[in-house]
Specification:
The protein has 17 helices and twelve strands. With about 425 residues, the chain is α/β, with parallel strands linked by helices. It has two domains: about 280 residues, 3-Layer(aba) Sandwich (Aspartate Aminotransferase, domain 2), CATH 3.40.640; about 130 residues, Alpha-Beta Complex (Aspartate Aminotransferase, domain 1), CATH 3.90.1150.10. The strands form two sheets. A seven-stranded mixed beta sheet has the order 1-7-6-5-4-2-3, sandwiched between helices. It has a five-stranded mixed beta sheet with strand order 8-9-12-11-10. α1 runs antiparallel to α3 and α3 packs parallel to α12. The structure holds pyridoxal-5'-phosphate.
Length: about 425
């Protein structure tokens, strides 16, 4: 077996492997389609008898190179890119759930994911039970039903900053015969690799740290290749029984440990079409090349900003898993000893109104609907990303009404702190 390279080298070198005379840098294959010499060659592709490119909605060489890099970073058996993180999450669930099925999800998740699950997927007949991921094993197990097909968590929740006890969640999910799907957007594989702790499927919003420069929307699904679908064949007929749309082919028989990923590409992407543009994949790849340099700086800056905020009399509370005394400090140390990410939340004494005022006075730090960017930015979830949620749902998602989400960038940390200080003094 090939010796596994280190993460830094994978960031730079994995994916595109040029042969003699080919471009050193990943080329953008800006082509919807691919040429063949005979009709039969093309027919074999449509029947999945041969592998190759034929239409960019299903597969594109630029996208596949970038997906291969993400798979290598996560130590998965394969990955696919999607047009957004939302598409990745939807596909990851829909790939193994039909109308009438059920999923157990942590309640502390991204607002967009909550809406997708509780509103849109519910309309498709897929039901979700939201659980407090910090509850006892017994309590969480009560949420599972005979028709439960997956468990979903975020490794670090957005914006609650809850660090999930992934080993425990994997044990619960596997005890119930279902895979654990993990949204690993916030720590990225630089700081946390869920497959090493029992996760089965990983999703990413590559829009965030992976791109890192706020230039292109994207998502990814990574298959860990370890979940034994055939051992629970009756639960996952889509993978273990013939697919009529491919002349009765059975994914687990034909594709072994990449059955899940292959189905997501050849069936869901074929039919739903949320493909990433090759141009965006090219930009994402440039972002990935420096991910290993940026993540430690995000964490270093965030740690200093969190400690600074904690020292200020105007601040009511600071929630950053890197702070000693934080509820998730020990879990963060266990799973992410190199750091968590650059995102934190805090509230001002004076509550919701003062929090909004504070944000309006910031100069360097921008108010944007974004997070995990090279540039420091803030958002007030109760007024922005989570405004559809009731107060009850906000609390369940770990979002206090006065909560400010601060995404610390990679500028000089003294300038970030100076901007916070001038705003605090002006309110
Ligand atoms: C942003 C985000 C998403 C959604 O990703 P998009 O690329 O915006 O569609 C999903 N999960 C988490 C944790 C996110 O931060």
């Amino acid at each position: 077996m090939e010796k596994k390279q280190n993460l830094e080298t994978i960031c730079i070198q994995a994916g595109w492997q040029p042969k003699k005379g080919e471009p050193r840098v990943l080329p953008i294959c800006q082509s919807t389609t691919f040429k063949y010499d005979t009709s039969e060659q093309m027919a074999d592709l449509f029947d999945l008898k041969a592998s190759g490119y034929f239409y960019t909605r299903l597969q594109n060489p630029t996208n596949d190179s970038v997906a291969a890099k993400i798979a290598a970073l996560e130590c998965g058996v394969g990955a696919m890119l999607t047009s957004s993180g939302q598409a990745a999450t939807f596909y990851a669930i829909f790939n193994i759930c039909n109308a009438g099925d059920h999923v157990v999800s942590a309640s502390a998740i991204y607002g967009g994911t909550f809406n997708l699950f509780a509103v849109t997927m519910k309309k498709l007949g897929i039901d979700f039970t939201f659980v407090n991921q910090d509850a006892s094993d017994e309590e969480i197990r009560k949420a599972f039903k005979p028709n439960t097909k997956a468990m979903f968590v975020e490794s670090i929740s957005n914006p609650g900053m809850n660090v999930v006890d992934i080993e425990r969640m994997a044990a619960i999910a596997h005890g119930e015969g279902v895979p654990l799907i993990v949204d690993n957007t916030f720590p990225t594989p630089i700081n946390f690799r869920p497959f090493e702790w029992g996760a089965d499927i990983i999703v990413h919003s590559t829009t965030k740290y992976m791109d890192g420069h706020a230039v292109s929307l994207g998502g990814a699904i990574v298959d860990g290749g370890k979940f034994d679908w055939d051992a629970h064949a009756d639960k996952f007929p889509g993978l273990t029984q013939p697919d009529e749309s491919y002349h009765g082919l059975t994914y687990t028989q034909s594709f072994g440990n990449t059955a899940y990923l292959t189905k997501a590409v050849v069936q869901l992407m074929r039919d739903l079409g949320s493909a990433q543009s090759p141009q965006n994949a090219f930009l994402l790849n440039i972002g990935l090349e420096t991910l290993h340099l940026r993540m430690p700086r995000h964490c270093e800056n965030a740690q200093k900003v969190a400690e600074y905020l904690l020292s200020r009399p105007e601040i009511a509370w600071v929630n950053y898993p890197g702070l000693k005394g934080n509820k998730y400090y020990d879990l963060a140390q266990k799973y992410m000893p190199g750091g968590t990410c650059g995102v934190m939340t805090f509230g001002l004494k004076g509550g919701r109104d003062l929090s909004v005022k504070f944000m309006d006075q910031l100069q360097l730090i921008a108010i944007v609907t974004h997070v995990a960017d090279a540039r420091t930015c803030v958002l007030h979830p109760a007024s922005h990303t989570h405004r559809q949620l009731s107060d009850e749902q906000l609390t369940a998602a770990g979002v206090a009404p006065d909560l400010i989400r601060l995404s610390v960038g990679i500028e000089n940390v003294n300038d970030i702190i100076a901007d916070i200080e001038q705003s605090l003094k002006s309110i």
